[in-house]
Amino acid sequence: MDHIIARDDTAAAWRERDLAVLWHPCTQMREHLDPAGTLPLLPVERGEGAWLIGRDGRRYLDAISSWWTNLFGHAEPRIAAAIARQATTLEHVILAGVSHAPAVELAEKLLSIAPREAGREPLAKVFYADNGSAGVEVALKMAFHWFRNRGIDGRTKFIALDNGYHGETLGALAVGDIPLYRRVYAPLLAEAMFAPSPDAYLCEEGETPAQRAHRAADALSELLERHAGEVCALILEPRVQCAGGMRMHDPAYLKRARELCDAHGVFLICDEIAVGFGRTGTLFASEQSGVQPDLLCLSKGLTGGALPLAAVLATQSIYDGFLDVSREKAFLHSHSYTGNPLACAAALASMAILEQDDVIVRNGDTSQRMATLAAPFADHPHVADVRQAGMIVAFELTRRGDKRTPFDAGARIGLRAYRAALERGVLLRPLGDVLYWMPPYCVDDDALQLLADTTRAAIDHAIEEAACA
Ligand SMILES: *Cc1c(COP(=O)(O)O)cnc(C)c1O
């Protein structure tokens, strides 16, 4: 390990400098400003593999892959080199009316690895955006506009799932169902319909995850029976509702959802922004259901976590639906940085690493190790559920360790665990009272052992602290 001289005073001074000017995302800033240190700010100097090196000279394990973006570790040399090379060749150019190699080569690559279903027309075209939410906006607008172009005006609604998350822009928020992010903006949002989540955590007594998936699919079927003529697309997160608390469901659901969309002439949009690129054990989560969507949204890990970029993959039929003499029938959506060459170069390097390093196979081994380390938590008196999908493991904390006794939100168990883990050198960022592991793929056995030990200590500390608070 590098020998780094501790510089605690520098870290403290940095916090002050930061808080004087920055407004941080997804944060109640008052908790940072609070002299009691309710939410400590972590000043980071650099990244190295699965680790972040703080300005205090300490190393912190990035157990959440920096909001699920990082795949192969921080400052990955091959990705860094690709960006550097591209920066001295062509840093950016308008993509309307112009072509460049990174955009074309990346599109070719993505289409070649995208989920494919026998007998269904493959995903054939790539539209770029520059972040996940923008990618979701693109997919929603494409689905709606396609019907308009066919002279069908009645299909103006989307179906999404309870507890789903698709981003923060107004269109993406409209199909999201996490009250903390959505409720205040509700008056501004387009109307969407929500179908029950197949979430296995919601299984009733004696019900299996597969049965739960089928029950949720039956409810989706009824919703479609009643409203199909008004619906242009169903949008969902395959396999794991990540922001919704790493809630996982049986792959049978997506298979049924695909069949129902086909039966009702509704597009299926798979949002694999968080679960794509090997995170859940297969290259794409949709593969576990043997399903191919009509529109596939990718972002987060697309560049290995180095630069913002999103891609929406569409079928030839969707693309063809926009070909016309009318410019209004074209998909005019654009962002200044659409198809940015630096981001595309980073993504190409990232896609090459997925293959060169045999990442899916290696992740299989790492997932096994994670399963072994996670198993004992099932007996913890405050853990109601331990669940896993590949490189994601989640622990649902409750008062008595059963599903019926959630902690009071005011107890801030997750926040207390966050602070306790940070003090022990691990960056966890719980979703409410759900703690989860979603480390970069390069995480090694020692780091995983530290993660497991720290998670247990953080849970115990949080519960003890909350009781005496
Ligand atoms: C993070 C996320 C988004 C939004 O992506 P941003 O780049 O944060 O805008 C959309 N969908 C899912 C499933 C996500 O996890």
TrEMBL record:
Keywords: Aminotransferase, Biotin biosynthesis, Cytoplasm, Pyridoxal phosphate, S-adenosyl-L-methionine, Transferase
GO cellular component terms listed in the entry, alphabetical order: cytoplasm
InterPro entries in UniProt: Aminotrans_3, Aminotrans_3_PPA_site, BioA, PyrdxlP-dep_Trfase, PyrdxlP-dep_Trfase_major, PyrdxlP-dep_Trfase_small
Residues engaged in binding pyridoxal 5'-phosphate: 132-133, 271, 335-336
GO process terms (BP): biotin biosynthetic process
EC number: 2.6.1.62
Pathway(s) of this molecule: Cofactor biosynthesis; biotin biosynthesis; 7,8-diaminononanoate from 8-amino-7-oxononanoate (SAM route): step 1/1
N6-(pyridoxal phosphate)lysine carried by residues: 300
Chief site of localization: cytoplasm
Annotated PROSITE patterns: AA_TRANSFER_CLASS_3
Record keyword S-adenosyl-L-methionine present: yes
Catalytic activity: (8S)-8-amino-7-oxononanoate + S-adenosyl-L-methionine = S-adenosyl-4-methylsulfanyl-2-oxobutanoate + (7R,8S)-7,8-diammoniononanoate
Any one GO molecular function term: pyridoxal phosphate binding
Subcellular location, record wording: Cytoplasm
One family name in Pfam for this protein: Aminotran_3
Organism domain of life: Bacteria
Chain residues that bind substrate: 67, 165, 300, 334, 429
Residues annotated as site: Participates in the substrate recognition with KAPA and in a stacking interaction with the adenine ring of SAM: 26
Function: Catalyzes the transfer of the alpha-amino group from S-adenosyl-L-methionine (SAM) to 7-keto-8-aminopelargonic acid (KAPA) to form 7,8-diaminopelargonic acid (DAPA). It is the only aminotransferase known to utilize SAM as an amino donor.
Listed name of the protein: Adenosylmethionine-8-amino-7-oxononanoate aminotransferase
Taxonomic path: Bacteria, Pseudomonadati, Pseudomonadota, Gammaproteobacteria, Lysobacterales
